[in-house]
Amino acid sequence: MTTAAVKWGTCMTDLIQILTQPDFQFLRNALIVGILASISFGIIGTYVVTKRISYLAGAISHCAFGGIGAALYLNRTFGLTWLTPMMGAVASALAAAIITGLVSLYAKEREDTVIGAIWSVGMAAGLIFIDLTPGYFEISSFLFGDILLISSRDIVLVLILDAFIVTATLLFYNRLLAVCFDDEFATLRGIHAHVYYIFLLCLIALTIVLLVRIVGIVMVIALLTLPAAVAGKFTTRMWKMMLLSIFFCMSFNTTGLALGFFRGLSSGPSIIIIAGLSYLIVISIQKVKPMIKKRASFIQLQK
Amino acid sequence: METPQVVEIKNMSFAYQARNVLKDVNLTVPQGDFATIVGPNGGGKTTLLKLLLGLLPPSSGTIKIFGTSPAKSRVKIGYMPQYSHLDMQFPVTVMDVALMGRLARCKWGRYSSRDRDAAATALEEVKMDTFKETHFNALSGGQKQRVLIARALCSEPELLLLDEPTSNIDQESEKDLFNILQRLNHRMTILLVSHDLGFTSQVVKSVICVNRQVVIHPTTTIDGTMIKDIYGGDLKMIRHDHRCCEMGHMHD
């Protein structure tokens, strides 16, 4: 126990030392973005988990790849130098959000089929665009995240997103709560439930795109849902769940980045593994606890 | 003086995918009425309710609530849905749920202290005021239903619509529920969808039979044998009801 504590202590001092060195600017940026992004992730993740639309969020994030591919293609082939992959991702994620939203609300199609189609067609479109684009691209940084790519510009972008999401949540908290809990009743109370639903999906799209940098398109869903899922085990109110999941998301990001850095592992997967393990531990404890209590009271009875 | 009509439906039909769900419906509900909508599954009870709420448009004919379209009079309608369609893990407390009834009234989406008072009073009215901070899903079926009634009440409605309030609750809770509704009936018109008539007939003033067509009976004309006839047993209930609505009943 004590050796572990000593080891942890040295780790922390190492980390602090490293963070103050100019050579490790990228790690500092990644940590700052990870912590700041947790605010948006915690809030939006809570909506995704409670409204049970993580599949929808998955489709949106994979569709963002189509936009990345399209932006790269237009950029290289037509010389649209102002068009960055990020802009393409934002545009296609928003389009995917609106389409999936409208489909789930109005088209009497099997919703999961449509979601699956958007999911893989978006991905396929991205790959085709990259095939068509001259030159070689390392696409793994988009798929799995790469903290080396995080710049100080990203910090500003994440700050803007945080400000936007926090303001939207403060303004529309009660309405979004009602829409997520019982959209029919919200409609009857004069709320444009469908408009709020699509708006929520757009917020999800923006959050996903900005955060793809850290964990990548493939894993972003886990970072969106797991902190909220863990938080949901400890509270019975929406706003408390948001605050808790912000906290959990911050811890997962920080420990994941540290683990990745010290062990030489990819940071995205490290973050996701830590988040997944935490969720598993929390639900296991919740399942086992009543059993132990039952057993204890049984033994008491026998005495 | 004539009592004003809360609900006025004239020659209304509703078809879903070329199939008539409701046909030539003529129905009036006077102010202060307490009516149950009964009928077999698939007979169009829920459809009628959704039409009254303006969630579905009629294929032909007109529906007027408080003399205007259902969508316009929504604010005057309190609606209690079945709780079974709600997410059982959603993070809300009893108070959170009740406050949702005030959404149309609150400015900027924020609840004022008046909204909170109204929600608290409504919870008191259904005897759920001691559960304000309880997780909604920790409640029993009957308690959930009472909270959903409180949610409908705190918007101060003039017409209360309830969808199957007696399903999934025990007899004791059902009795409590009807005591509450009977009290509320003094100040608002009540329409409730129900699958069983046996008990409700002691409280309600009229019965609306829905099986593609709609037929109204004042409860005074319903005697014991008739109830037994219509709702003798679960299986028979459907068949008898079908027959009685097609041709069996005499009414005005």
TrEMBL record, chain A:
Its main location: membrane. InterPro entries: ABC_BtuC-like, ABC_TroCD. Keywords: Membrane, Transmembrane, Transmembrane helix, Transport. The keyword Transmembrane applies. GO terms for biological process: response to zinc ion; transmembrane transport. It holds the Pfam family ABC-3. The chain crosses the membrane at residues 30-49, 55-74, 86-107, 113-134, 155-176, 196-229, 241-262, 268-285. The keyword Membrane applies. It is a multi-pass membrane protein. It is found in: Cell membrane; Membrane. Belongs to the ABC-3 integral membrane protein family. The lineage of its organism: Bacteria, Pseudomonadati, Thermodesulfobacteriota, Desulfobacteria, Desulfobacterales. This is Zinc transport system permease protein. GO terms for cellular component: ATP-binding cassette (ABC) transporter complex. Coiled coil: none annotated. It comes from the Bacteria.
TrEMBL record, chain B:
Residues 7-237 form the ABC transporter domain. SMART domains: AAA. The keyword Manganese does not apply. Pfam families: ABC_tran. It comes from the Bacteria. InterPro entries: AAA+_ATPase, ABC_transporter-like_ATP-bd, ABC_transporter-like_CS, Metal_Ion_Import_ABC, P-loop_NTPase. The keyword Calcium does not apply. Keywords: ATP-binding, Nucleotide-binding, Transport. One of its GO terms (molecular function) is ATP binding. Coiled coil: none annotated. Belongs to the ABC transporter superfamily. This is Zinc transport system ATP-binding protein. It comes from Desulfocicer vacuolatum DSM 3385.
